Amino acid sequence: MSIQTPTIGSGQVTWDLVVVAFFIIWIVLGIGSSLFFWRIRNAALKRRVWPWYIWGTGGIFAAFTAYLMRTPWILAFVLPAVAVIAWLNVRATVFCDACGRTLWNQGFIARAKYCARCGAELYRAEGNNRET
Ligand SMILES: [Zn+2]
Fold first, then answer.
1. CA 121 to the chain's CA centroid
2. 3-state secondary structure of 20
3. DSSP bridge partners of 49
């Protein structure tokens, strides 16, 4: 039995336990978080979980990349990229208190004032008033 081994750069990926475990964790996290953030209508709960989820998955991704590349110094490039993406993700996502939906803000400078789904006014609840 042989599994096709993808190559990243010059290094070859070996399908060891860490790689298999990472993909299982990644898939479970992906499905679980999608269900959680789309189905759950509790804006306050999602607002608390969201930054942990984003920074957590960013950390897992960075650690896995360093493991895959077999070079810890790659983190010097991966960590800033992950940090920027995570920060943008946390910043761009708001949760409507009226309908509880997850909303991705399109504009980073001009923030949406009303929920695109139910039309309720956003940024009134504590913790969501990041309007500057
Ligand atoms: Zn709404």
1. 25
2. helix
3. none
Tell me what pLDDT residue 3 has.
Answer: 54
Residues with Cβ–ion distance below 5 A, ligand 1 = 96, 98-99, 115, 117-118, 120
Contact 78, 66 (CB under 8 A): yes
* Range of the structural domain that residue 25 is part of: 15-93
Domains in the chain: how many in total?
Answer: 1
- Averaged pLDDT in 10-residue chunks for the chain of 132 residues: 52 75 94 95 95 95 90 92 94 91 74 86 60 42
CA of 102 to the centre of ligand 1 (A): 8
Sequence-separated contacts (24+) of 5-12 with Cβ below 8 Å: 8/68, 8/69, 9/69, 11/68, 11/69, 11/70
CA of 114 to the centre of ligand 1 (A): 8
Tokens, residue 106:
């399109």
Q: Does residue 42 lie within any of the structural domains?
A: yes
